[in-house]
């Protein structure tokens, strides 16, 4: 506001008598605009990088206009050959034409950048409401500043919690999630940080409940009655463990009597109920489309606790979607599924595939047109019936 007031009015007080015919006003305006551009680039006051880029481009264009105006003013002066010496033009007319052409080119370039950013934002694979196709509302309660606080064990969960936060920020532009590497200034204020978030995300991995700081965060979440969103690392090779092993770890370590953050703590039973029983843990999958499903599940639970959707839960009933995400599988005709009987649980999995494919969009295969056969018998059996339709090996 101060910059706008200065450029629009206060600059007129520079040399009030002859300022309109001299260079002082243009030079001062150009310097002020350049300084503001530098401050903008250093302070980065905008949350979204796109907003910062747009503001910098606009101020750069304004600064260039003042500089070009200075060049025209020089060429209109009475000093002989000064225009050609400093600017490179023989008269003010040539300088003015150059300024007009360059300004028009900058305006066209700015418009193209804005259109490109707008088109990219529209086509970006961001999370939308399946019911309306629109981005979800990310309104926060007035008393907090973050949509979620993510708690994790540094030894076994740090890399994946970073992935979760970065991916959610990409899929939900504007979402704010408290992450230690981004927001931790003082480890003594962990409890305050938990209270400053709308939800409490728990990344469950080996050693989580053994961490003293993780338990501090858990007790703070219990004390402030924050909704728990448990995320379960199932890959044992990457620091995961079974649910039963994690429950045992919780029983063994969450035994503090009247912890400072939550003096009314009643014991491991209360912790188990909030972490594991209040809502089923979301399985974290690291690969491609499966990871997207985990992220959508996390986002949906956060939105369910948003004040905006407290009275609009019907908008979330259909769930969330991402444009161009893999759709439901469907069969286009008779299908034979071959499966190995030695694979444990293959019958249950094949039945799930059969049911899901039969319900898929554009599916033309009825349940009776999907045959399930043992691979060894169908391929090597002497009296095996010939395979028909599309053949899928599971």
TrEMBL record:
Segments passing through the bilayer: 26-43, 55-74, 94-116
Keyword Protein biosynthesis on entry: no
Domain TIR residues, every copy: 149-234
Sorted UniProt keywords: Membrane, Transmembrane, Transmembrane helix
Pfam family, one: TIR_2
InterPro entries found in the cross-reference section: TIR_dom, Toll_tir_struct_dom_sf
Domain of life: Eukaryota
BP term (GO), one: signal transduction
SUPFAM superfamilies attached to this UniProt entry: Toll/Interleukin receptor TIR domain
Protein name: TIR domain-containing protein
């Amino acid at each position: 506001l101060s910059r706008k007031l200065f450029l629009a009015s206060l600059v007129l007080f520079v040399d009030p008598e002859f300022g309109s015919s001299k260079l002082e006003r243009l030079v001062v305006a150009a310097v002020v605009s350049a300084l503001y551009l530098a401050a903008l680039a250093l302070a980065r006051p905008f949350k979204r990088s796109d907003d910062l880029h747009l503001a910098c481009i606009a101020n750069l264009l304004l600064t260039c206009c003042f500089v070009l105006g200075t060049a025209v003013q020089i060429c209109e002066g009475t000093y002989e050959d000064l225009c050609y010496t400093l600017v490179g033009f023989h008269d003010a007319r040539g300088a003015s034409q150059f300024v007009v052409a360059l300004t028009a080119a900058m305006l066209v370039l700015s418009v193209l950048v804005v259109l490109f950013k707008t088109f990219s934002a529209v086509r970006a694979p961001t999370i939308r409401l399946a019911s309306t196709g629109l981005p979800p509302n990310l309104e926060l309660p007035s008393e907090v500043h973050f949509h979620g606080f993510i708690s994790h064990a540094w030894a076994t969960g740090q890399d994946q919690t970073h992935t979760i936060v970065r991916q959610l920020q990409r899929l939900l532009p504007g979402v704010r999630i408290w992450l230690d590497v981004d927001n931790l200034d003082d480890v003594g204020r962990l409890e305050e940080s938990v209270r400053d978030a709308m939800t409490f995300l728990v990344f469950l991995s080996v050693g989580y409940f053994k961490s003293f700081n993780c338990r501090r965060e858990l007790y703070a979440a219990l004390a402030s009655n924050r909704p728990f969103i448990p995320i379960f690392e199932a890959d044992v090779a990457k620091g995961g463990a079974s649910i039963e092993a994690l429950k045992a770890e919780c029983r063994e370590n969450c035994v503090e009597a009247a912890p400072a953050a939550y003096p009314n703590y009643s014991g491991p039973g209360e912790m188990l109920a909030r972490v594991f029983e209040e809502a089923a843990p979301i399985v974290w999958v690291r690969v491609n489309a499966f990871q997207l499903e985990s992220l959508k599940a996390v986002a949906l639970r956060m939105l369910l606790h948003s004040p905006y959707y407290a009275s609009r839960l019907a908008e979330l009933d259909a769930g969330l979607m991402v444009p161009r995400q893999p759709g439901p599988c469907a069969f286009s005709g008779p299908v034979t599924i071959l499966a190995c009987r030695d694979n444990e649980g293959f019958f249950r999995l094949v039945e799930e595939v059969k049911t899901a494919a039969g319900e898929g969009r554009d599916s033309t295969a009825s349940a009776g047109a999907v045959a399930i056969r043992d691979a060894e018998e169908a391929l090597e059996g002497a009296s095996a019936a010939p395979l028909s339709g599309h053949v899928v090996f599971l």
